[in-house]
Design a protein that fits this description.
Blueprint: H1 2-12, H2 26-29, H3 31-45, H4 51-68, H5 73-84, H6 87-108, H7 111-120, H8 126-144, H9 147-156, H10 158-164, H11 169-186, H12 191-199, H13 204-229, H14 240-248, H15 258-269, H16 274-292, E1 302-303, E2 311-312, H17 314-320, H18 323-341, H19 344-356, H20 360-377, H21 381-398, H22 403-417, H23 425-437, H24 449-452, H25 457-472, E3 478-479, E4 485-486, H26 491-494
Antiparallel strand pairs: 1-2, 3-4
């Protein structure tokens, strides 16, 4: 009887011709990904989290899964390699490499120095400077697509400047993290944007256009509150000579790098493929920085036989910065694929559907909850997003929630929570950067991660806005037969439901 039941379960699986059997049934197929999540949470709590450490956790999970597989081990290996070749991972990796190269070229061109010069020469003080820091950090992170890089750059330059002109240190640190969130969520070249789009089979330009309303709805009140409450800092300990030296290191010519950023933005939002947009951005940025005198070609690419990498420069650094994460996404995608072959995704979806029934509202609340839970535990937001993505896609497709909407739910909560919790990697990164700056500016106060998290307004607003969207259906679109967006619920979802959504 048990064999008959197992056979019928295998027949019902959506994979059809491909399936794997595991000890513990469908739960056994979840062992690789479950082990990875536990590993990620444990290393985070112990303060030992790193990208290469997460790769090792994923590898250990896949090895452990082998011993839970009751099918032939060769079938498990073949299933693993099938998972590694899924297009979602490859597309995300190539997009990351191009985005990384573009971001590094913009940084070589002095974009952050130009934005800091703009803030430092604006003659604003207190809360207005804090609000300006948020806006400039949002612009920078949207241009380069890296919230982590934004956090380091602005904690290095804008944080000391803001404290010196009367900005409250806690609100100033929160404004920097909030600006990083804005770009991480909205930028076409952001790693989380790319992952959220590719894992839901969506195009990046369409995703960005559809999520702007959510991002700006959080940013406007955040900027206002930063301006109101961000002042009141103590300037008595600031060293004017040190601040003058810092301002001398800035350069207004770095603002010319906004031109290639604008070009990429226009091309991407006009429907050009992201790789096409980024290629033109890179090709434009290089001559711009050389002509403006903010950089030289050897900073873009050079050959150095004495270097470990032989090739040096911004282009190499842009690719190198994502190599470890590229390996990680392939391993997690493979682990998720094994869950499909073993029937775990089908089982979890069916259990959730028992609670959701015909309510799309409950389906979206489930998506919101899954993403929030994983991002609260895994401190590297891209890794958490990759882990949550299969569940979001499986559940969203069942209820015909449009791929843009799924990507927005996935990315907004991921981008927000990664910069809020005190144990989050970017919060700790910013905190450690500020501590390092105290070697240069002895008067500079530090802000503990536990003190800043209530004030990261862009993050909190974004999480609450997406919860509001899930409850009320604001911005909800269904998916038509050809992938088009539909405002009305498809006919097959409307029968026997008391929920208007």
């Amino acid at each position: 009887m048990a064999n008959t039941k197992a056979a019928s379960e295998r027949t019902a699986r959506r994979e059809g011709d491909h399936s794997l059997d595991f000890r513990l049934g469908a739960w056994g197929a979840a062992v690789p990904l479950t082990f990875f999540v536990i590993w990620a949470i444990t290393t985070s709590v112990l303060g030992l989290s790193s990208e290469i450490g997460l790769v090792m956790g994923a590898l250990f999970g896949l090895i452990l899964g082998l011993f839970f597989c009751s099918s032939a081990w060769s079938d498990y290996a073949n299933g693993l390699f099938e998972g590694l070749t899924q297009p979602v991972g490859v597309v995300a990796i190539v997009a990351w490499f191009f985005a990384g190269m573009f971001a590094q070229v913009l940084q070589v061109g002095g974009l952050v120095e130009g934005l800091v010069w703009l803030g430092g020469t604006s003659n604003v003080t207190g809360g207005i400077f804090v609000a300006m820091t948020f806006i400039l950090a949002a612009v920078f992170s949207t241009a380069v697509g890296t919230g982590y890089g934004t956090t380091v750059a602005f904690c290095t330059l804008m944080y000391p400047a803001g404290v010196a002109v009367g900005g409250d240190p806690t609100w100033l640190f929160a404004a920097i993290l909030s600006g990083a969130i804005f770009g991480d969520n909205l930028a076409p070249v952001s790693d989380t944007t790319i992952v959220s789009a590719t894992t839901q089979d969506a195009d990046v330009p369409g995703v960005v256009r559809s999520r702007f309303k959510y991002s700006i709805s959080a940013a406007i009140p955040a900027a206002i509150l930063f301006a109101i409450f961000g002042g009141g800092g103590d300037t008595s300990f600031a060293d004017p000579a040190a601040m003058d030296a810092m301002m001398e290191s800035t350069d207004p010519m770095g603002l010319v790098m906004l031109a290639p950023f604008a070009l990429v933005l226009v091309l991407a939002l006009s429907g050009q493929h992201l790789l096409t947009s980024l290629t033109w951005g890179i090709l434009t940025a290089i001559p711009v920085l050389i002509i403006a005198g903010t950089g030289v070609f050897s900073q873009i690419i050079a050959f150095d036989a004495d270097s470990d990498t032989v090739i040096t420069g911004a282009l190499m650094q842009g690719v190198q910065g994502y190599v470890t994460m590229a390996i990680l996404i392939l391993l997690i995608v493979a682990a998720a694929y094994l869950m499909k072959l073993g029937g775990t995704m089908e089982m979890i979806t069916q259990k959730l559907m028992g609670w959701i029934k015909d309510s799309v509202r409950k389906a979206e609340l489930s998506i919101w909850g899954i993403v929030a839970l994983l991002n609260s535990a895994i401190t590297i937001n891209t890794a958490a997003e990759i882990a949550a993505a299969p569940f979001v896609k499986e559940l969203g497709e069942r209820y015909r929630i449009h791929r843009y909407r799924r990507a927005n739910m996935l990315d907004a909560v991921t981008s927000a929570l990664g910069y809020i919790f005190p144990w989050g990697a970017p919060v700790l990164l910013g905190w450690s950067t500020i501590q390092l700056m105290q070697n240069t500016y002895e008067w500079l106060p530090s802000v503990a991660p536990t003190a800043v998290f209530p004030f990261v307004l862009q993050g909190w607003f974004l999480v609450l806005i997406m919860l509001f969207a899930a409850i009320t259906g604001w911005g909800l679109r269904y998916e038509g037969p050809n992938g088009e967006e539909l405002k009305e619920k498809p006919a097959e979802l409307t029968h026997s439901t008391a929920d208007s959504r």
